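Can't paste images in this forum, so I'm doing it all in text. The chain is below; anyone willing to post the predicted structure tokens underneath?
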Amino acid sequence: MAELNNTNTANEKKQEGGETFPGQIEELPGGGIVLSKLDDIINWARSNSLWPLTFATSCCGIEMMATAGAKYDFSRFGFEVARATPRQADVIIIAGTIVNKMAPVLKRLYDQMADPKYVIAMGACAISGGPFFYNTYSVVKGADHVIPV
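Text version of the structure:
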């Protein structure tokens, strides 16, 4: 039986993004195998998880808050650290109708976020103005009219 040749037995290997992955990479014929403890992988994923800033103005905000409850428990993915300040957030989640008076506030929050920053428009109201308020004079017809989504 041929002996397997381990070409890289370092405890950490650089990935393309430059971040270290906790574990040992074993190069085998036909592919590689990652050997690591599950706790190391979970902690690595949590350290690279996004910190959200919520901008909830309507009923979609209530549904978003329900995901933090015990049934869905998004804290197991490292997403539980909701930030009330835009300077510490990585992603802003817009949930609900954006009215003309709230548009400058949303723009200011987006401008205060550090780069790289991401935006998620959640629900029909945040995406297109909503099915109920679309023809209203005071509703912005989607978050993309205020900030890049």
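The chain has four helices and seven strands. The radius of gyration is 21 Å.
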